[in-house]
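From the shared-data thread, chain only:
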Amino acid sequence: MLKLFKLDTLLKLVDIKGTDGKTTLLHFVVQEIIRSESPGSETKENTQKMDIKTMEGDFKKQGLQMVAGLSKDLVNVTKAAGMDSDVLSSYVSKLAMGLEKVRLVLQYDKPDVNGKFFNSMKLFLQEAEEEILRIKADERKALFLVKEVTEYFHGDTNKEEAHPFRIFMIVRDFLKVLDHVCKEVGNMQDRTLVGSARSFRIAATAPLPVLNRYNVRQEDSSDDDSFSL
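Structure, as tokens:
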């Protein structure tokens, strides 16, 4: 199976900073995505300059909204990050144990407990047992899919057995960082539109921002372990 890269690497995008000490590699990535998602970033020369600036600002906002909307698209991943697989399994086990106690009570088919209540509990027990079986089947399927995703990105899943949902935690933490960066980029765009600050836009022919050499050297040793092709 082809392995892309460890999701932990996404968190390192904010560790690599520019010479200003504030702009990170993630800022640059977000800005490039915004530009690529802006269909009107290239306008005709005959268009008036004011219209160009207005259209460009609108397209930038649309691109930023698309990137910032990633958190909404992955809201279920964020919820999963707060779950504990062991706790969920224990809940199912407790339900199964409770049903077993109900079964033991119903085994005593005494005349005084016969009637509507007895029949209702018997029907409840049957439906509940079937539901428990479905829940356990869904649990096994979900854990198998999580294991597959973990194996796809991180390779050896044995290291993740203690925390099978850790991959969701990584995505959750990255989304928090991404939201923060999107807000900063949005503020930069607003300042650019009113002309109170220098434009954050990077020219298409411009190279990657000059990165702090110390940070780059610091990450070199860990990046070899993080990326696997």
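Residues 36 and 59 are 10 Å apart (CA to CA).
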